[in-house]
Amino acid sequence: MSRLKIEVDPADAGLGADRLRRLDRALAAYVDDGRLPGWQLAITRHGRVAHLAEYGARDVENGLPAEGDTLYRAWSMTKPITSVAAMILVEEGLIGLQDPIDRHLPAFAGVRVYRHGPVDRPVTTAAAEPIRVRHLLSHTSGLTYGFHRAHPVDEIYTRNGYEWATPPGLDLAACCEQWASFPLLFEPGTAWNYGVSSDVLGRLIEVVSGQSLAEFFARRILEPLGMHDTGFQVPPEKADRLAAFYTVNPADGKAVRADALGAAALHRPAALSGSAGLVTTLADYHRFSQMLLGEGSHEGVRVLGPRTVRHMLRNHLPGGADLQSVGRPVFSEMPTAGVGFGLGFAVVDDPARAGVLASQGEYGWHSAAGTVFWVDPVEKLTVLFFTQLMPSSAHPLHGRLRQLVNQALVD
């Protein structure tokens, strides 16, 4: 177990003390009026922790505070870790970004694309292009999530038990077999859609490496980086550190406890989700973010080469377009204009068009459970904000957080 500690005076890191107080007060208001149960925040500049703050509770009903070792469901912040794992295999020459995934996952040979028609009688045609490894990493595969509920293919996922979870008892291999049988939303490589791409990528990692996704993560990323509290299950001896899970009451916007949704983290899942399966701490994910800022290296441990990380941070959307042009809207605060997508991260290409205070090249990701992180290579800045509220888009939180962090930079 590790906790973050302040490593540099904020002023020496170019952060204004009065402006940090402004940031903390604004975030505290979300707890004071009941919109959030509690939160933790870490701001690191030039590799040194300059600001730590926490407020409210990890468990409101039992009066347990948010603390340095609190465990959080990372949900979609699992995706960047899965992407790094896949790029380890790329660096080893075991897979290539252009490889068709059916080379290792035969069920995806001959995938078909939805054209029109109702859910129970969809008209499909054979895909002109196979799903390739780079399509999984950039979410341009044509795969989807059931919870979008915006397209007949989404409904096919939902009817088969894929909405916020996978069907009970099915392992990752069985899930991939089913997903391969569903129509794609579009021709691979032609558009962007948030879906099970990272789950399929996780299965690809298993097949190519000969290890379970949990084993590969542990041996190649988590243990080398010292992320000892991160995994697919909270063990019994750590259960008291797990934050309670909350959803938003649509009537008043207040946080409401949702134990049924949160309990899954206490049990070993049948399907190890590369999209949303990990539980972690602020300190652990901080080490991952510092590895990214270090272009693949942290504290003498090299996970990826610097050129690999730089390639991941290029905009890999078709034609260099932004998410507004080629993406389907998702329930998210994330801007889509001026924002591209790399191999595992959203990347700000044009801050003015995006309408956010940000540097060009800033990248990161967030989750529907309230966690968010970003890395700013220009300012040598990393930011992590952890809470447990679904959906995080219910309040203008992540966008407000970005502007409040950036206003605190005064050098």
TrEMBL record:
Taxonomic superkingdom: Bacteria
- Tell me the keywords, alphabetical order: Hydrolase
Q: Specify the protein name.
A: Serine hydrolase domain-containing protein
What enzyme category does the UniProt record give? hydrolase
**Pfam families per the UniProt record, alphabetical:** Beta-lactamase
* Molecular function in Gene Ontology: hydrolase activity
The answer to whether UniProt assigns keyword NADP to this entry is no
Is the Hydrolase keyword given for this protein?
A: yes
Q: What is its EC number?
A: 3.-.-.-
Span of domain Beta-lactamase-related: 23-405
